[in-house]
Amino acid sequence: MCFSATASFSLGAALIPVGIACLKKAQEEDRRYMPLAAFPLAFGIQQAIEGLVWVGLGANHTRLVALAAAGFVCFSHGFWLVWTPLTAASVEGDRRRKQIWRALTGIGLLYGLYFNLPLWLHLRQLAVSIHNHSLVYQLQLWLYPTRFLVLLGYTLYVLTILAPLVLSGDRHLQRLGGLVLVALLLTANFFSAGFISVWCFFAALVSLYVGYVFLQGLEPRSQPPLA
């Protein structure tokens, strides 16, 4: 599979209007689902930003690459670490799980700051390269990336995003989480070098499911709160 500026811009252009429509639908039907409704819009913006990374690399425009890559990482290693558990908390019917998702939102915020603060203090902390038609983001962190810390970092990153979806009490989030998990496994097996970029691309595709959910209507498919 060949990823490119065209692929990113096309996906972004498709997702942004879907996201806007979902937000309007959620506002009319159930505002608890507003964070979920924002998924396609946020992914659309993120893909448009990554399209600029591709353009910058193709034109050898260092400043454009640095700014666009920083914007992409702000989503991948910041926004989604907070927004995903926050989304789960907003629709969760089980009190204990809601507390867990809220706590995970705080953890995601701290983790996102750990990734993004050094980046925005010095844009050269982030390097971007092309490997097998996908983008590889290499971020220099404050702590030396030993093998243990890298494994711990990946585990915490994946759990912060996947757990609130897969373990949610809401069936819409459960199904979305299942699709995101499939995207993760495909990426890990076939596109490991460009893991973050490719997983975000596949997750953006998967977010079209959110559009389907709101097109069908929320109430008939919603799972009742768990005791």
UniProtKB/TrEMBL annotation:
InterPro entries: DUF6629 (IPR046737)
Entry keyword set: Membrane, Transmembrane, Transmembrane helix
Lineage of the species this protein comes from: Bacteria, Bacillati, Cyanobacteriota, Cyanophyceae, Oculatellales
Transmembrane segments annotated in the record for this chain: 6-23, 35-57, 63-83, 103-121, 141-167, 179-212
Pfam families the UniProt entry points to: DUF6629
Organism per entry: Thermoleptolyngbya oregonensis NK1-22
Domain of life according to the entry: Bacteria
Protein's name in the database: Uncharacterized protein
Keyword Membrane: yes
